[in-house]
Every structure is written in structure tokens, then in C-alpha cells.
Design a protein that fits this description.
311 residues, alpha/beta, 37% helix, binds NADP nicotinamide-adenine-dinucleotide phosphate, Rossmann fold, three-stranded parallel sheet
């Protein structure tokens, strides 16, 4: 997959500050609208395949246990797949499934030529080794891009799948018309699914960011973030990045998805990011909301991988 070279700007109206009603400086990067554009592009390619007499791409989603959050993510993935014409099924198993049984499921999906993409919803129950299951997925069907072979290809800058959340972040930046080349980019978080692969993508020739990766042992974090042109937070702590930690005009991408109690909601909670949105949006030039920022992009880029797997 190539990133587009002529970014289309999809920015929503300025949001009023939800606490003070003030007009913040930042414009909101509308992840929902950009992800919808990507789904339309995928649909056009799927339709072209069908017109050539080829079958629709097929994604198998493996869900173990009954965690409501995982079930909700999986529903979102099927809904988005249906919009693009990609066929998908949920293969749901009880939390009591053994590791060997699950590896058997993966082996059958690997051998099935009608299956283009395999997605195992993480985390798995404690008695199952996530990495062992990831390693068992055929790298050519690994649409999450978690398999060590695909991670290695990414590291070397070879063609192949791109990890969905990091690739979604780069697309958000490019399609919002943000120049990345040479920019001082600070990522907070070094996980294998967000921080580390994002650093690799941003460093690639052609993207050319200057990248700093921070984590829980980083010293003087605010001093580092105050020098950033672009900040990506992938920590998992509500409201962690505050206005005093950023410079005027910074671009902020908030990957965090944190549940905070909210008695006014039927569910009893709402989703917030790692960024103190009301404070930081007054200094930032561009910022992603949570929800409606990175989340929809992750799903769109995973579908892009599924189409690429089928092609
Ligand atoms: P993770 O594996 O828990 O990693 C969190 C990272 O944050 C770690 O590297 C940790 O440092 C660092 N960290 C924690 N506290 C810190 C602090 N006080 N200062 C600096 N760094 C700190 O998390 P993840 O899987 O990457 O996910 C991060 C967040 O993104 C979560 O809220 C998750 O729900 C969300 N997420 C969203 C999407 C999406 O599509 N929107 C996709 C994936 C994840 P150490 O390594 O030193 O412990």
C-alpha cells in the first residue's frame, strides 16, 4: 500500500470548548470522515474485482470469550467490512477454549484458500499465549500486521502489510495536509501495536519525520513534548497530555481510548483519550477527537490490508 501523494484535506468545523464555550484554536481532524473516504476507495476496488468475475475478499475474525469491549470492536469491524463489500464472519469461541484448539482453528483458516485475512481479537484469555497465536497466523493473511515476519518487513521498509493503527495515524496526518518530513515528532508509548511500529513508519524514507519515542521511564517528558511539532499519545491514561506540555500550533494525535465514569450515560461511562482535549485544543493547530479520530482509521486500514491480501 502506498500513501497518497496529494493529500485531501478533511477537517471539520472548529468545536466550541465543551467546558467554557470558548472557541479553541485547534481544528479537529475528522477521523470518521477520512476513514469513510478510505472505505469508499476500498469499495471501488472491491467492485472492480467483482466486475472481473473475482470473488469478494473474505475476512475471518476470531473472537475468544465474552468481553463486551472486544465484542463491540468486532461488531464495528464487521459493519465497516460490509460497507466496503468485504465479506466477514465472526468465529466466536468460549473463553475455555484451549490453546491447542485455538491453534487448530488458525491452522484451518490458514489452509482455507477462501480466507484472505485472519484477525484474532486481542487480548486472549490468560491461559493462551497471545504471541504463540500471532506467530501461527499465515503471514500472508496477517491483516493486523502483528506476525514477526511482517514486522521485520516493515522494519526493513519492504512492501507488505502495514500495521492498522500506525498506518491509520500516518494517513490521518497526510490526508489532513500536515507536512511530516523533517518534523519533530514525539510518540508517547512504546507498545508493539502502536508506538514502536508508528516510529518505524514515520522514520521511513519518504515520510522522513524526526522521531522521539517516550515511555514510562522517560525523564523530563514535558520538556521533550514542548519541543514537538507533532505529538502522538498512545498511553492509556485519560487526560495525560495537558496544555502546559505542548507548544502553540502543535499537531496532536490522540490514540488513547480510556473509559471514564459518566453517570449521565446509559452505559455509565464515556470514552476519552490520553489528551486533556479542552486544554490542549486551545494551543494546538490540529487535534484528533476521541472517539472519532484514530479509532475508525484503524478499522479502515485493516480492511485495506484484507483487500491487499486478496489481490
Ligand atoms: P500499552 O501496551 O499499555 O502501552 C502503553 C505505553 O504507554 C507503554 O509504552 C508505557 O510505557 C507508556 N506509558 C504508560 N504510562 C506512562 C507515563 N506516565 N508516561 C509515559 N509513558 C507512559 O498500550 P497500547 O496497547 O499501545 O495502547 C495505548 C492506548 O491506545 C490505550 O488507551 C488503547 O486503548 C489505545 N489504542 C487505541 C487504538 C485505536 O484504534 N484507537 C488502537 C490501539 C490502542 P512502558 O513501556 O515504559 O510501560
Amino acid at each position: 500500500m502506498e500513501y497518497i501523494s496529494h493529500p485531501r484535506i478533511v477537517l471539520s468545523q472548529r468545536f466550541p470548548n465543551s467546558v467554557t464555550g470558548d472557541d479553541p484554536l485547534a481544528q479537529i481532524i475528522d477521523g470518521r470522515a477520512i476513514a469513510a473516504d478510505i472505505r469508499k476507495e476500498i469499495k471501488t476496488e472491491v467492485d472492480a474485482r467483482l466486475a472481473e468475475g473475482k470473488r469478494a475478499p473474505y475476512l475471518a475474525v476470531v473472537l475468544v470469550g465474552d468481553d463486551p469491549a472486544s465484542a463491540a470492536y468486532v461488531r464495528g469491524k464487521h459493519k465497516a467490512a460490509a460497507e466496503t463489500g468485504i465479506e466477514s464472519d465472526n468465529l466466536a469461541y468460549p473463553a475455555t477454549i484451549s490453546e491447542d484448539e485455538l491453534l487448530g482453528v488458525i491452522a484451518r483458516l490458514n489452509d482455507d484458500p477462501a480466507v484472505d485475512g485472519i484477525l484474532v481479537q486481542l487480548p486472549l484469555p490468560d491461559h493462551i499465549d497471545d504471541q504463540k497465536v500471532i506467530n501461527a497466523v499465515d503471514p500472508e493473511k496477517d491483516v493486523d500486521c502483528f506476525h514477526p515476519l511482517n514486522v521485520g518487513r516493515l522494519m526493513l521498509g519492504l512492501s507488505g502489510f502495514k500495521p492498522a493503527t500506525p498506518a491509520g495515524i500516518v494517513e490521518l496526518l497526510l490526508r489532513s495536509g500536515i507536512e511530516i518530513s523533517g518534523k519533530n515528532t514525539v510518540i508517547i508509548g512504546r507498545s508493539n501495536i502502536v508506538g514502536k511500529p508508528l516510529a518505524i513508519l514515520l522514520l521511513q524514507k519518504g515520510t522522513d519525520a524526526t522521531v522521539t519515542v517516550c515511555h514510562s521511564r522517560t525523564r523530563n517528558l514535558p520538556e521533550i513534548t514542548r519541543q514537538a511539532d507533532i505529538i502522538v499519545t498512545a498511553i492509556g491514561r485519560a487526560g495525560f497530555l495537558t496544555a502546559d506540555m505542548v507548544k502553540e500550533g502543535v499537531v496532536v494525535i490522540d490514540v488513547g481510548m480510556n473509559r471514564v465514569e459518566d453517570a449521565s450515560r446509559e452505559s455509565g461511562y464515556r470514552l476519552v483519550g490520553d489528551v486533556d482535549f479542552d486544554g490542549v485544543s486551545k494551543k494546538a493547530s490540529l487535534i484528533t477527537p476521541v472517539p472519532g479520530g484514530v479509532g475508525p482509521m484503524t478499522i479502515a486500514l485493516m480492511l485495506r490490508n484484507t483487500l491487499d491480501a486478496a489481490q
